[in-house]
Every structure is written in structure tokens, then in C-alpha cells.
Amino acid sequence: MKNKEILRNIPSVDKVLNWNEVKESLDILDHAHVTTIVRDNIDLFRKRLQAGDALTLDDLKKTLLDEIKELISPYFRYAVNASGIVLHTGLGRAPFNRRIADIVHDASLGYSRLQIDDEGKRADRYKKISRLLEILTGAEAGIIVNNNAAATMLVLNAMAKGKEVVVSRGQLIEIGGAFRIPDIMAQSGAIMREVGTTNRTHLRDYEGAINELTGALLRVHQSNYRIIGFTKEVSLEELVALGKKHKIPVIDDLGSGALIDLSKFGLPKEPMVQESIAAGADLACFSGDKLIGGPQCGIIVGRKNHIDSIRKNPLTRALRCDKLTNAVLEATLQLFLMKEEFLVQNHSVFRILLKPLDEVKKAANRCARVLRKSYGKDLQIDVKPDMSEVGGGSLSTEQLPTYVVTIRSRSVNAQELAKALRRYERPIFGRVAEGTLLLDFRTVFKDEEKIILQAFKTIMKAT
User: Fold this and answer.
1) Claim to verify: residue 198 and residue 294 sit in the same structural domain
2) Quick one: which H or E segment has residue 460?
3) Which residues pair with 389 in a beta bridge?
4) Angle of helix 148-160 versus helix 304-312 axis, rounded to 10
5) Whole-model pTM?
């Protein structure tokens, strides 16, 4: 049937509403909303036909029913990360352990204590987390907002609105989501004063830029890239000394931030928040959902008088976090109070980063054996060494040794197989390289192996 003929035979909205499958949805869905969905799908179907797409009326039915199913199904749901990217932005970055997941459940099931004290009076929602941050970082006070981009903008707005902020050209970064330091600074109301060159900035460059309009000196950690070779950076200690000399505050944007020294575990050293505070930074900000392993939020620590000013800033209300973020961050920070061995065993991100390679290999081999036994005639399955990524703008360029299950289908290409896994009721995200599906077992939890096996059972029945 040609497109012109199909166009003439597109059913009316009322006729589509009488399709049995659509009528079933009307048992639970509001008629007006289903009508809107039907009308929109018919309009889109007509436009695609007019554009020359080869479609049938069955395509209209499938697209419509798929959308109804998608709209009433949760998008934000549990997924298996077999991509090998530890802090995968698309998959929610840091995973939480069971205890923290239970805390989320408890805090969301009914009412929860957010900012009310034992006397029933309005309390300070930042008090508990601020105290934890004081103990962990050595700062005088702390506060949180909804992400580190917000933290950076809020700090600049509170400290230097209408004033110049001196920053090295080599630190004018762009990270994921088109977050750019110059753009954030412009939105904050501060005036950017760039100094030095991309690869070399000297202390004299900062000092030469200081004038009566200078509001702050800013250091920005180059989270997701490195400049190597003929380079020069000014240390935080030097910036702090210069700031004290001219009575100008120093702001340290740490990006990911770290509360333990990862180098002792064989990973590259990331800037530690404690070191920034000890060096004399007036304020430091960093992400809560990267190496801290908590929820998405931006954490600000530093001198109490500056934190107090930030609390009073109107933007703080606009950028504040909800009860679930507060609950998860509190539980995450509590882990850092524990002895290091307990922290490493119970912190999900560190467990993945530090998972022994032989454990990764055993898990990959275990899964491959079962898949090979069941589907060896249809799938070519092997286990090979590979490299995982830390991701999330943390530990720039760092890769971790891993083992992957490689899968090639004799009837379905790797992209289609990967898509089928993503569309499974418990979505599974692997990666495709050179026409082969790879499932990286560094980021697969033990309990998730059975989900992968069940997914293949379902998918292979359908092929």
C-alpha cells in the first residue's frame, strides 16, 4: 500500500480509541489523556508518511501502544551497569549500598524529619551535614546545593558579584553538559579576569591582575583533562599567601573532590578537600556524586563568615536540596567517619574501583560458562582482558584493568543485541566495539549476574 493510500485510510481518533488494546488502557487511564496521546501519534504518523517514510497502519498501532506503555512505566529505574564506566553520568553516577538505599526508602515512605527539632520547632536543615563536613574536612562550616555547577555560581555570586575574579586561562574548563567556567562566572555576576596562558601561569600573572575591583582569586581543578609538557601552575599555597597579602579571598573549585587519599590504593591522587582547607582556601566546592559517592549535589566548605553569607544569599533557596539528597549525603558522609578498612568495604564506588582483578575475572568466567552452555550454538562467547574507565570527570584519563564477556551473535548484530538488553525490564547497559558486545564485570555486582542470564533467556526466545 503506497503512502497516499495509507494517508487516505488513517483512522479517526474515535476509531483508534475503540481498538481493543487502547480500550484496555482506558480501564486505568483518563480518557482525555489517552485521546491526546492518540491524536499526537496520528499527527506524527501523518507527517512521517508525508515526508516519505515507508510505514503501515501496524506501525501506527505499535508506536501508539509503545508510548502508552512507556508513559505509565518508570523511566528512572534500576539498571545494570556492564559498561565498565564506574561513574557513569547517564546511569546516575555513584551507586549506593544497601544501607543507604534503605535510608532513601525510609525517608520517602512517609513524612521525614528535614528541618524540625525535638521541640517541634523549625530547625536548621544544614546543621547536621555542616557538622559532618567540619569534622571530615577541617573547615569551619559547610553547606550543600543541588550540584557543583550551582555551588560554583553561588560562591562567585556571594563573594564577588560585580567584582573581578582572577583565574588562569589554563583552568577555564568545559566539562560534561556544556558547563563552562566563563559562562558560570557570567551568570554569577562576577567579572572574569583571565591571566597567564593555556599551559603556563605564574604567580606574577595573578599579582599583576589585582586591583581595587578584585573580589577573589579562583583555582579550578582540571577534572577531565591534563596539560603536560612545558607547563607551569601556581600552587594553592602560593595563591593563599597572595590573597592574604592583598586581603582577597581564595576560592578552590575541586571538581570531583576526594575525602581520602586514593594514591595509597594505587590510583592517581586527586585533590583532597582537607588539603585545600589546610592550605588556607577561604572556600572550596566539589561534587557529592563522584568520588564522594553520594547523591548529586554541590558541597561548599570553608570559613564560617563566608558560609553564613552564602546561607543568606537568595540563590541558596533557589538551589537548595530536597529531603532525599540530604538523607543520602548524611549517610554517605557518615561512612567517612569510619575506619578506612570499613569505609572501603562499604562504599560502593571504592568497592568497584578497588575490586581485585581475579574477582572480576571469576565473575566474567562464571557468567560466560552459563551463557555458553545455554546459547553456544547461537552465540560466540569469550572472556578477554580489557580496560574500564572511572568516568564522571574524575581521575582524568585513568583506566582500570578488567575482564569482559565478549558476545557475537550469528543472527543479530551487536548493536541490536545491545539495544535488546537496554530494553529489558531491568535495563542492562554494555558497550559495543568492533562489532562485538562487551559486558564489563568490574561494574557488575554479584547479584546482577542472574539478571543478565535471565535477560538473555528472554531475548534468545524472541530471536
Assistant:
1) yes
2) helix 449-462
3) 85, 399
4) 100
5) 0.92
Domain assignment of residue 293, given as a range: 98-346
Neighbours of 155 (CB within 10 A): 32
The residue type at 152? T
Query: Measuring CA to CA, how many Å separate 68 from each of 41, 74, 76, 150, 419?
Result: 11, 12, 16, 35, 20
The closest alpha carbon to 394, from 248, 251, 270, 283, belongs to 270
Alpha carbons 357 and 354: distance in angstroms, whole number: 9
Task: Give the separation between CA 173 and CA 221, rounded to whole angstroms.
Answer: 9
**Beta strands per DSSP E along 1-153:** 80-81, 141-145
Per run of 10 residues, the mean pLDDT along the chain (length 463 residues) is 84 96 94 97 96 93 96 94 95 93 92 90 94 98 96 96 94 73 91 91 94 96 70 90 97 93 87 96 96 96 98 96 96 96 94 96 97 93 96 74 96 94 96 96 96 96 80
Cell, residue 220: 579550578
| Whether residue 290 is found in the same domain as residue 382 | no
Rounded to whole angstroms, how far apart are CA atoms 88 and 243? 37
279 neighbors 240 (Cβ within 8 angstroms): yes
Specify the number of domains making up the chain: 3
Does residue 21 sit in the same domain as residue 140? no
Pairing label, strands 431-433, 436-440: antiparallel
137/216 same-domain check: yes
How far, CA to CA in Å, does 422 sit from each of 352, 425, 430?
22, 8, 8
Residues 234 and 383 in one domain: no
Is the same domain home to 84 and 180?
no
| Contact between 276 and 254 (Cβ < 8 Å) | yes
The CATH number covering residue 372 comes to 3.90.1150.180
Say if residues 376 and 125 touch (Cβ distance below 8 Å): no
Cβ contacts of 118 within 8 Å, gap of 6 or more: none
The beta-carbon contacts of 350-358 under 8 Å, at least 24 apart in sequence, are 350/293, 352/86, 352/95, 352/442, 352/443, 353/86, 353/262, 353/265, 353/267, 353/390, 353/400, 354/265, 355/442, 357/401, 357/402, 357/403
Cell 582556601 maps to which residue?
281
Q: How far is CA 73 from the centre of its chain?
A: 22
Whether 316 contacts 271, CB under 8 Å: no
d(CA 125, CA 329): 12
User: What phi and psi values does residue 83 have, to the nearest 5 degrees?
Assistant: -80, -25
Pairing relationship of beta strands 283-287 and 298-302 according to DSSP bridges = antiparallel
373 and 278 inside one domain: no
Query: In angstroms, rounded to a whole number, what is the distance separating the alpha carbons of residues 337 and 347?
Result: 12
